[in-house]
Structure formats: C-alpha cells, structure tokens
Design goal:
Blueprint: H1 12-25, H2 29-41, H3 45-88, H4 97-121, H5 125-133, H6 137-157
Keywords: Coiled coil
InterPro entries: Arc_rbn_hlx_hlx, Ribbon_hlx_hlx
Coiled coil: 50-77
C-alpha cells in the first residue's frame, strides 16, 4: 500500500496528547493518526458509535431496573415490619400516653443518632448482620490484630 506524507498543523494540546498516547501504547504517531482518520472516514463509524452508546444505555437500564427492584424490596420490607409492629403492639392506656410519647420521642432521637453514626461509617446493616452470623476467620484475625495494635498504642500514650 502506498503511503503519502502530509504536513499538518494541530493544536499544541493535541500534539502533546498524541505524543503521550504513542509512548503509552508503544506505537507510532502516524499509526494513531491513520487509525483515527480511518475511523472518521469509515461509513460504519457512526454505526459503531451508535452501537457503543446503545450498549452503555442497556447497561444503565439494567442498573436502574436493579435499583428499582431493590427499592421496592426495601419499601415492602418496611411496610411489612410496620404492619407487624402495629398488629402486635398493645394499646397504651390513656393514663400512660404522655409518658409513652416522651419515651417515644427519646427513642426516636436515639434512633436518628444511631442512624447518623451508621451512615457516617458507610457500612450496610445487612452486611453487618451477615458478618455477625457468618464471620470470616481472616477478617476476625485482622480485627484482632488491629485491636491489639490499638491497645499497644493506648498503653504507650498512657
């Protein structure tokens, strides 16, 4: 195949990125420019871009469907819990309602504080429960080593 020499002017930033890409990939700048030009001039280039975009959109759609499914599970779980709680809870006698409201308010504030701490940790309650029920021996060893190191640090500071 016959090759033609061209002298082109490109922006400094593009030249810099071309140099970096050629060095990173270990190929010539000419081969990169030739591949880019072939892609640009190819009648299938638009179809390839469209296929790539469609593939990404499909992946995003599946992720959105999983999020929706998970959200529905969470909503149903909460609704079932509330229904169960309201079914098994005994009514509070009229004489004790003020005390019950005060205790409920205090418990709710405590709940919100615990929720805030839990969210700051960035952990999942479900994951924590699973790890409590089925502890990983390797992680337990890591946790024990971490606790020992923390104790040694505290002893040195004393």
């Amino acid at each position: 195949m016959t090759q033609y020499r061209l002298n082109l002017f490109i922006q400094h930033e593009h030249a810099k990125r071309l140099d970096e890409l050629a060095a990173k990939k270990g190929v010539s700048k000419s081969s990169i420019v030739a591949a880019a030009l072939a892609s640009w001039l190819s009648p299938d280039a638009g179809d390839q871009r469209e296929a790539a975009i469609a593939k990404r959109l499909d992946r995003l759609s599946r992720q959105a469907e999983r999020l929706e499914r998970d959200q529905n599970i969470q909503i149903e779980t909460l609704a079932l819990f509330v229904r169960y709680f309201l079914t098994v809870s005994t009514p509070v006698p009229e004489a004790h309602q003020d005390a019950a409201r005060a205790q409920g308010k205090a418990r709710f504030e405590q709940f919100v504080e615990q929720l805030g701490r839990h969210l700051l940790r960035g952990r999942s309650l479900v994951r924590d429960v699973v790890e409590e029920l089925h502890p990983d021996p390797m992680r337990m060893d890591d946790a024990a080593a971490l606790a020992e190191a923390h104790e040694r640090t505290a002893e040195r500071a004393s």
